[in-house]
Amino acid sequence: MSSTSPRRVWIVADVYYPEEAGAAYFVTRIAEGLSSRFPVHVLCSQPTYSSLGVRAPLRETHRGVVIKRCKSTTLDKNVFRFKLANHVTIGLSIFFQALLSFNHHDIVLVVTSPPVLPFLVAIACQMRGAKCVLLLQDVYPEALVAARMFTQDALPVRIFSWLTKRLYRQMECITVLGRDMEALVKRKLNGVGSLKSVIIRNWADIDRVFPEDRNQNELLCQQGLTNKFVIQYAGNMGHPHGIEDLLEAARRLSVIDENIHFLFIGSGVKKPWLDDMVNKNNFRNVTVIPPRPRSDQQVFLNACDVAITAFVPGMTGVGVPSRMYNIFAAGKPIIGAVDAESELGLVVREENLGWIVPPSRPEKIVEAVLEARSDPRRLAEMGRRARTVAESKYTVNHVIDAYCALINSFVPNV
After folding, report:
1. Before 57, cis peptide (omega within 30)?
2. How far apart, in whole angstroms, are the C-alpha atoms of residue 149 and residue 141?
3. Domain count within the chain
4. What Cα–Cα distance (Å) separates residue 9 from each residue in 122, 139, 397?
5. pTM surpassing 0.85?
6. Residue 59: strand, helix, or coil
7. What CATH number did the domain enclosing 148 receive?
8. How far, in Å, CA of 77 to CA of 294, rounded?
9. Both 284 and 157 in a single domain?
10. Could you give phi then psi for residue 197, rounded to 5 degrees?
11. C-beta separation of 1 from 34 below 8 A
C-alpha cells in the first residue's frame, strides 16, 4: 500500500452486513472489494430490513472490513412514524460516532439513506477534515414527490430541495447509478457551482445467477405454473412502484389469454393492498408470494418467461432498479413500464433486451406482454443478449475498479 494512500476509507450506511436487503448487499460488496486495496471501515446501524431482529456485534472485522455498528431504534419500517424514528436515531448515532472516528485525510463514502444521513456525515467530515463522497442511490426530495407523499410546492419539499443543493456543492464527488440520475442532479444545481459526478452502476451476480431451463424450475413447479406464460415482478412494492398498473394489466389479460400468468414476489407498503385486491376479485392469473432470500435468486429469477418492472410517473433519475442486472444475468427479457429516458429504458432499448412502455399505461403493458408471448424466437434471442450484456458490462469487478479509481483520484502520486 502506498504511503500516500488515505489513512482510511470509510463507508457510512444505515444498513450493512448481515443485512442483505437492497442497498445493504451492494454497500457490503463494495466495502469488501475495496478492502484488498485500502484500509476500509464501516459505520452503520443494526439490521432493520430482512434481518430485522438480528443483533450483530457492535464491533467486528468481517472479510477485511472493520465494522462499527451504532445503537439506534429498529422499529417496523413499514409504519411511517416508526421508520421516521429509525431514521432520526440512526442519523444522530452515526453522526456522533463519526465525530469520534474520522480523521484528516480519511475519505468517506456516504449513502443517501436515510435522507438525513449525508447531511450529518458531511458536517462531521467538515469538522474532522475528511473528504466526503456522496453515493447517490435515491434523489430526495424528488423521491417523496414521485411517491405522492408531498406535492412539489410543499414547504418541506422546498426546504429539503434547498438543503440538498447545498449538500451536493459541498461534496468532493457524487457517484450516480445512471445517466438519468446524473442529468437530474445537474438540473437541480442549475449550473450553480462545479459538480464532479461519476456514473458507477450496480452489477449482476453472474457467478450466482445464470440462465436455467424454466421447465425444471423448482418455484414454477411448486406454484403449478410450468405450463403458463409467466410474467414476474420481483422486488420491493413501495410507493414509487406501479403495482396498480401491473394488476390492471393482469386483469385485462385474464380475458384475452388464460395462459398468461403474473407472479409477484416481494414485500412493501403496497403488498397488503395487492393481496387484498387479488383475494377480493379472485384473480386466477395472479400469484403473490413473500420475498425470497437473495441466496435463492437463481431459482426465483428463472421462474418466468419475461421479467417486468414498473414505476409511477416522475421517477426518472430518482432511482435505478438494481435487480435489472440480475434479470439480465438470468437471461430474461424485461418489460419496463418506465420513462424511455430512464437508465433502465435506455439500456433495454440500446441493447434490445425487451420492451419499454410509459408508466401508468396498463394498456401498453398488455400490448407488450402479448407481443412477447407471440414471438418465442425473438424472446429467446433477447434472453441470450441479456446474459451477454451482463457478462461484458455489469460485473462486480467493473464496479470495484471504478471505485478504486475514484478513491485514487483524491490521493496524489498513487
Report:
1. no
2. 10
3. 2
4. 15, 24, 18
5. yes
6. strand
7. 3.40.50.2000
8. 20
9. no
10. -125, 150
11. no
Residue 383 counted as domain residue: yes
Domain that holds residue 341: 214-393
- C-alpha cell at position 226: 410450468
In a domain, 2, yes or no: no
Rounded CA-CA distance 90/70 in Å is 7
Q: Distances from the Cα of 402 to the Cαs of 13, 109, 130, in angstroms?
A: 19, 14, 21
Considering the domain architecture, whether residues 50 and 67 belong to the same structural domain is answered as: yes
Cell of 248: 390492471
Sign of the alpha-carbon dihedral angle for 348, 351, 353, 356? positive
**Residue-wise pLDDT tens for the chain (414 aa)?**
444 556 799 999 998 999 887 789 999 999 999 999 999 999 999 886 665 567 889 999 999 999 999 988 777 666 777 777 888 888 899 999 999 999 998 999 999 988 899 999 999 999 999 999 999 998 988 988 888 889 999 999 999 999 999 999 999 999 999 999 999 998 888 765 566 889 999 999 999 999 999 989 999 999 999 999 999 999 999 999 999 999 999 999 999 999 999 999 999 999 999 999 999 999 999 999 999 998 999 999 999 999 999 999 999 999 899 999 999 999 999 999 999 999 999 999 999 999 999 999 999 999 999 999 999 999 999 999 999 999 999 999 999 999 999 999 987 654
